[in-house]
Amino acid sequence: MKRLIASCFGLGWLPLAPGSWGSLPPVVIFALMCYLHAPGVLMSVVMAALALAGSYFCVKFTPAVTAASGKNDPPEVVLDEVAGQAITFLAVPFLAPSAISASQFLITALAGFLLFRAFDTIKPWPARKFEKFPAGWGVLADDLMAGVYAGVTLLLCIRFGWLEYLSKSVYFDGRLNIFSACLLGAVQGVTEFLPVSSDGHLVLFETFLKLNPETPQMLLFDLATHLGTLVVILVAFRKSIAAIFRGLLIDVKSGVNPITLYKESPSTHVAVLVVVVTIVTGVIGVLLKKHFISARGSLAVVASMWFINGTLLLITDWRKKTPLEVQQLGLFAAILIGLAQATAIMPAISRSGTTICAAILIGLRRQLAVEFSFLIAIPAILGAAAIELVGHFGEISSGGLPISSVLTGSIVAAFTGALALKLLIKVVGTAKLKFFGFYCYILACFVLIYLLRRA
After folding, report:
1. How far apart are CA 214 and CA 270, in angstroms?
2. Which of these, 185, 161, 41, 184, lies nearest to 104 by C-alpha position?
3. Could you report the per-residue pLDDT of 137-154, keeping only the tens digit for each?
């Protein structure tokens, strides 16, 4: 329990810069309170409470984590980042109330996050000397100092009008521009591979950016970012894909009976499973397409689906023994996985999450479940993109969709997706999907609060 709390309930166990993951809770809370127009006094009180709680539990529990891990500054301890990041925003509501306005709070939150991460990494004097303090104080003190540096710098940026200038440069006027394309591309890249639903996140962010997620233009943009992440899949699993195609060529030339090949050839067996999954997904997608599209415009549906997605992730982590190889899966298993992938057309139901969970619950080995999930994603993404492009070709040719924004979003999605895929592979292998389940619950609660406040 001490290690769980010190890691901020699992954030510190995530790979790829755990300190950055640990810095996110204060950033998200600050942005949400700004969005909900919370009083400045309340915002400062909450930031102070986060700083105090993070500091107290960091000092109290770090010695136990150090003893258990054998490291003087365990990377899994991120409560120091929580405390330092909270200090960054502590004085902003009082000294710079304009920075929490509806037009500027996102830029303020992002700037505060980047500044804190920069100072926490560089550790300017005297922050680095603070690391020599005994026990948990050495882990905590340098982050508190980084938070002070970041907070002062943030206030100076606000005082000289730099953030205001930046917020005006990246205006949100209900149209897709370069900045919103970058933001949505990053959201797509990260959430396409993590089991938290890229569609749900895109709908949520498009709503906040005053973009209508139901319009053909935004549907096409979403598909373009999906194609960007498809490039990551092709590169990451290129060896497996090439091996399957080589095996299929050998099987075709062999002249052996197809049923025998299905039973004995790994390449043919996998190819048949992929085809069956794709057919099941395609049939259901075509039959229920109108209902799926209309659901994108309902945040209540999005919240409900996030609850379901989170529950599925929690249930999957209970399955400990997964001994099956892909060749041991039958057609019935492929149909079940195809049904799981079809449900992911609903917003806030993760395609990677449902297919990986379905495969693991059937008994497929965890690492193979990840690989198979993204193999079946290739025809699904290509098919959906082809249908939408053909159906809305006139809008693209008429210039209704900014090509520069589409390309920018796709490129950003590809770069961020590559990092997210590495994270997913590690998380699935260590049976820590439940943390993404908790994240889905938090998102669902946030959406419900937003809907109640708007009602």
Report:
1. 35
2. 161
3. 777 788 888 999 999 999
